Amino acid sequence: MVALQYAHGYSRVRTLTLYNTAASGDAVDADALDALALDDGPERSLDGAFSPGFRENAPELVDRITEWREAEDAAGDAFDAQAAAMTRFSALPLYEVTVPAEVYYGVDDPVVPADAAESLGADLPRGDATAVEGRHCSFVEHATAVTDRLVALLDEHAGAE
To answer: Which residue segments constitute the domains of the chain, with CATH numbers given?
Structure first.
């Protein structure tokens, strides 16, 4: 949502890549977002972030993410402020964001429904929405494929004025 707002307000953006987001906080499931908080323990908070298959197949990575979140992630009032910013967000007119844009979304994301992400991609004049297996952090679950598409987008528009 921050990147979308920035792209709208500044002419320095050449491309836009958005992950698991919507044009409006009204589309965000506030309860699912709250479930990502560390309050009930870092492992439980990953339920909405990663699919069970990913957690089973990449336990070392999940452990590293859990350790990082315990040490660095927003908690308490800071998390509440981030969640409030997300649920209260309302994008400025999307037709004014004219840079090439890719929206990636998790097909099983409990926080941002697939239809909200698809709508965002469709409402951006040069937007495209791509489904990625997984939940709210689907871009981590399938980092190689998502990164390959991102690199291709950047290569295609490198040096473009």
So the answer is: 2-157 (3.40.50.1820)
